Inverse folding.
């Protein structure tokens, strides 16, 4: 399969008061076109920082210190990779929410409580599809069915004609500052809202026309998460990054959302990068899985291979620690705690908790090795 | 004989409005819950958020004053007790709270936190107290040298251990565990679950284990009660409940739990919509608005909670 996203030796550090938190230590992963990649790990292992680094939205005091994030947006053109870390901020802005979009963890924090749902969903259309929308309105205005008064119609045709050529022209920018002339955007906003209703309807939310007038506090948690998904899907992204999209929801609602994502993946989006701490969710939705521990990717494999034949001691321990139905044995826990990333253990970061630690483990960090076909492990045992 | 018996427990929270704070409605958080807890047994209480599980746990201890009902613990009706008597009973009925970050006072050190219940109930000398605290800390897997540290110096799992040590300080008969592991990571979660199971064996404790994660409840419980919108809809032994769920809600809930095994692709029952508001719950069976197998009677009459054999209780018209 063709690659869609590739990170090479990604390093991100946080410069805090207590010292430098080495959150990512050379993370390299590949997401293919048309696949669902799951990234699992415990809290604080760097899952979220990985995707935030990919999107270049790492918050202060974090800094991306090295590595590459290469995207191949066109499936056919394998040479045309773009290194996102070298691009300008303007380019990233035009990419985020358009070709690559993200669902955030907490739907309450992701939605703005002072804006209506309709405004928040139509924002991405207004940002990314201004030109298409202006062209469409211009065509509507020129169509013979359009029944507007002669002068108004002429003026609107002129404005939208100009906007469909270049929605960021200087004259339009000036118009946007003048109170009365600003009103030319009314039609544009109406069109964006229409598109917002369409996308909300597509996600199976009852009465979309009513929902767009409501505010986040009127909706339940599951409903809010759907709105966040609607915003992410507004511009038909190639890659959807779901950062703990279902972690705060109840199981029955979680099942609804996962089913929705699965359906959307088949119909609309090409690939999903799913971040979760729940191994059950991974087993049910992903094709390929990466396991992270303390800022390192320690094992990457296809989902059946990983659950059937886990190689890294951490992956094994993690799988044994999950309670399963109708298995009446004591849970195997991993002794100790997740290390502090200001002073991570030397060598392999798992070695203080590892049941099969060897002499070489504390000395140097093990490189990722392809042990079997498509099964990569970073461990000295192999 | 049952150690703890809860009978028709109700808790309605009033909704007040206006400058005279007139009561304009009620949140029916717990609406007639009954169950028993035997000595040395673990009863799991599961349900989605907002179904009233935590309110049940807190009403039993009267941390929230219940509206009506009966709670009999060790032969005493807790809801009739005076303040001083209640304080004495609480020595043998303890609680472990959900969030290990907010349930420990940040200005007390670990030694003081664990000693607090002892100081409240027993009169013992300082050196004895120290020994007792050190013993408790060892028991839950903490080093006694950490006694003078403060909660912020510990990780989530260790903090939950402190909470457990505090609950066990007075050798209680029963402990209410209110989502003790939901804030923890899987590997730490397993440590705490194993610790709870081990302590139960050693001290012959009874647990009322409140959680939303069905696989954990199944792992630790002897019997499981499923709650929906303030009522228990099904109660059975854990094996019976998981192998032979009778209530449509339990069936949907079980099928929705993701299984960490990609070889198993089970058929999911997807419920439509959200949990209705407990301010005005649906008429009849509260689940009828989302039930895939509803009949005409479901919206009219409330189903009776009945025994259908083998200690399996269900509240559903289909039975």
């Amino acid at each position: 399969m063709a690659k869609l996203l590739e990170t090479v030796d990604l390093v991100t550090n946080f410069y805090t008061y207590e010292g430098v938190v080495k959150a990512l230590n050379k993370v390299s992963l590949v997401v293919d076109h048309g696949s669902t990649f799951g990234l699992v790990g415990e809290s604080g292992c760097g899952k979220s920082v990985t995707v935030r680094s990919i999107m270049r939205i790492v918050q202060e005091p974090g800094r991306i210190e090295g590595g590459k994030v290469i995207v191949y947006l066109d499936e056919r053109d394998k040479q045309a990779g773009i290194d996102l870390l070298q691009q300008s901020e303007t380019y990233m802005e035009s990419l985020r929410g358009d070709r690559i979009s993200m669902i955030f963890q907490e739907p309450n924090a992701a939605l703005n409580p002072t804006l209506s749902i309709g405004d928040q969903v139509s924002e991405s259309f207004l940002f990314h599809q201004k030109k298409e929308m202006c062209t469409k309105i211009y065509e509507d205005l020129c169509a013979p069915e359009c029944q507007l008064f002669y002068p108004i119609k002429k003026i609107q045709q002129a404005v939208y004609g100009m906007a469909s050529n270049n929605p960021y022209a200087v004259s339009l920018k000036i118009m946007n500052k003048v109170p009365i002339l600003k009103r030319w955007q009314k039609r544009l906003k109406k069109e964006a809202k229409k598109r917002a209703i369409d996308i909300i309807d597509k996600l199976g939310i009852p009465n979309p026309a009513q929902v767009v007038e409501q505010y986040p506090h009127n909706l339940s948690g599951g409903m809010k998460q759907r709105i966040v998904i609607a915003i992410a899907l507004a511009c038909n992204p190639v890659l959807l990054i779901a950062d703990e999209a279902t972690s705060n929801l109840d199981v029955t609602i979680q099942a609804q959302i996962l089913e929705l994502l699965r359906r959307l993946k088949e119909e609309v989006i090409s690939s999903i990068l799913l971040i979760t701490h729940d191994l059950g969710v991974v087993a049910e939705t992903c094709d390929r899985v990466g396991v992270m521990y303390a800022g390192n990717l320690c094992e990457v494999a296809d989902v059946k291979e990983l659950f059937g034949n886990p190689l890294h001691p951490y992956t094994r321990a993690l799988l044994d620690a999950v309670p399963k139905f109708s298995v009446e044995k004591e849970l195997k826990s991993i002794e100790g705690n997740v290390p502090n990333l200001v002073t991570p253990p030397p060598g392999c970061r798992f070695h203080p908790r590892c049941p099969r630690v060897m002499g070489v483990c504390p000395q140097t960090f093990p490189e990722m090795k392809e042990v079997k076909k498509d099964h990569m492990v970073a461990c000295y045992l192999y | 004989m049952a150690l703890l018996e809860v009978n028709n427990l109700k808790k309605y929270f009033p909704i007040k409005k206006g400058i005279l704070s007139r009561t304009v409605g009620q949140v029916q958080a717990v609406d007639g819950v009954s169950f028993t807890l035997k000595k040395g047994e673990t009863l799991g209480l599961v349900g989605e958020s907002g179904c009233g599980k935590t309110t049940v746990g807190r009403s039993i201890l009267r941390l929230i004053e219940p509206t009506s009902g009966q709670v009999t613990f060790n032969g005493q009706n807790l809801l009739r007790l005076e303040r001083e008597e209640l304080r004495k009973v609480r020595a043998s009925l303890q609680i472990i709270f959900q969030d290990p970050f907010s349930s420990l006072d940040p200005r007390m050190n670990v030694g003081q936190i664990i000693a607090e219940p002892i100081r409240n109930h027993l009169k013992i000398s300082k050196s004895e107290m120290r020994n007792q605290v050190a013993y408790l800390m060892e028991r839950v897997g903490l080093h006694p040298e950490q006694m003078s540290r403060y909660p912020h110096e510990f990780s989530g799992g260790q903090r939950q251990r402190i909470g457990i040590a505090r609950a066990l300080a007075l050798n209680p008969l029963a402990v209410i565990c209110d989502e003790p592991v939901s804030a923890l990571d899987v590997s730490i979660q397993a440590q705490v679950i194993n610790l709870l199971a081990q302590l139960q064996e050693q001290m012959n404790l009874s647990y009322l284990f409140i959680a939303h994660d069905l696989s954990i409840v199944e792992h630790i419980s002897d019997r499981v009660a499923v709650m929906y919108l303030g009522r228990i809809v099904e109660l059975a032994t854990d094996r019976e409940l998981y192998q032979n769920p009778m209530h449509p809600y339990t069936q949907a809930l079980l099928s929705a739990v993701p299984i960490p095994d990609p070889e198993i692709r089970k058929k999911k029952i997807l419920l439509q919509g959200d949990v209705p508001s407990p301010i005005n719950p649906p008429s009849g069976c509260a689940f009828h608005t989302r039930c895939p197998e509803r009949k005409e009677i479901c919206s009219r009459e409330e189903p009776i909670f009945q025994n259908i054999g083998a200690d399996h209780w269900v509240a559903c018209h289909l039975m």
